[in-house]
Write a structure and sequence with these properties.
It contains 17 helices and 13 strands. By secondary structure, it is α/β, with parallel strands linked by helices. The protein folds into two domains: 115 residues, Alpha-Beta Complex (Aspartate Aminotransferase, domain 1), CATH 3.90.1150; 263 residues, Aspartate Aminotransferase, domain 2 (3-Layer(aba) Sandwich). The strands form four sheets. The protein has a seven-stranded mixed sheet with strand order 2-10-9-8-7-3-4, sandwiched between helices. A two-stranded parallel ribbon has the order 1-12. A two-stranded antiparallel ribbon has the order 5-6. The longest helix is centred in the C-terminal third of the chain and has 31 residues. It starts with 5 loop residues before the first helix and ends with a helix. About 5% of the residues have low confidence.
Length: 440
Amino acid sequence: MKPKPRINIIMWRFMGSRLTSSTRCMSTSTKALCRFGWWDRVSPAAKDPITGVTEAFLADTNPHKINLGVGAYRDDEGKPVVLQCVRNAEAKIAGCDFINVGRESNATAVGSKLVEESVKLAYGKDANVVKEGTFAGLQALSGTGACRLFAEFQRRFHPESPIYFPDPTWSNHPNIWRDAQVPVRTFQYYHPVSKGLNFAALMDDIKNAPDASFFLLHPCAHNPTGVDPTAEQWREISYQFKVKSHFPFFDVAYQGFASGDLDMDAQAIRIFLEDGHLIGCAQSFAKNMGLYGHRVGCLSVLCADAKQAVAVQSQLQQIARAMYSNPPIHGLLLVSTILSDPETKALWVKEVKVMANRIQQMRSTLRESLEKLASPLNWEHITNQVGMFCFSGLTADQVDRLVREFHIYLTRDGRMSMAGVTTSNVSYLANAIHEVTRYN
């Protein structure tokens, strides 16, 4: 009998030892130790500051607790609202043949209608870009998804160009662009002493930024400060953008919440449009239609001509295809119905005004309540600021006291959601704020 080749003997011994080891592993209570540690280096991610506020609020059993962290509208009883225009749109689409509507060709047509109506809402129904079709547009997963799509588009075609965010901005903006590997910068925006706009510093930063930089702008109801430039200041900003060849990207999350007028809240975008800028817009219908869970939004990018728009459109579609293919159809039908049906849209416009008015009233009431308590501080900024949020000026320690002693929850930068303030809790809130600020 011929001896086995040495290489075979070595392999046999090696495989035998592997099998023996494997058998031992499976017969013990420490099976996991025998597996490769794929996720051993993964540590828990830091909690989003807004999500953390909501979680703490929900865990609190105190009957007087107040949630001022949520960025969605609440009525005067502190409850989420289903707008009547949404109910009407729901009734209109209830009889739809969802099997046929959900087919690719039909869903695409509905999505195109949403984009068309969204673009009219942002740029104006009579804008040349709408008439001439010199824009690329795509339904997105709310404003966050629209921002993410554009961030990826920017990375692909301008990989070296940074994007500048106002300081401060929505906490998720830097995350979105960093994950797309776009260089992130900031420009000065808020003045902590005046609790208003630091316009001179803002203009200096625009002038000093490298030519052809991208800037993210909040056209109205700035999140988190509630501080917006005036129309004249927007014109100066637009002019300087032209000088520097900067690209303006508008995050339109709260159209209607600043003034109650949808067109007035789009004036910044239209000033830039009149000045001849190519513009990007991320639009969300989560807040102004009360459709947070439906994730309906739109990304639009203005182009030099129709041919360029076709090219940009194809690239955006390719990016979306790899990310999520197509968004859900139900929210798309709701929003497109509201925007395209004149009667339903007119009702929506009225309801947006009602929501904005309630928030404005709560601002006035909170300020008056603090002044009646003879607070040593100036609270004019509460009514000078606009939109969903008030940048209160409270310090992190003062916020901690509000949470600990009064069960009032907000982010540690002092941002308060005015939608969480109601006629039944505004007095309690004012007294709590007075108590943590009176000796400062």
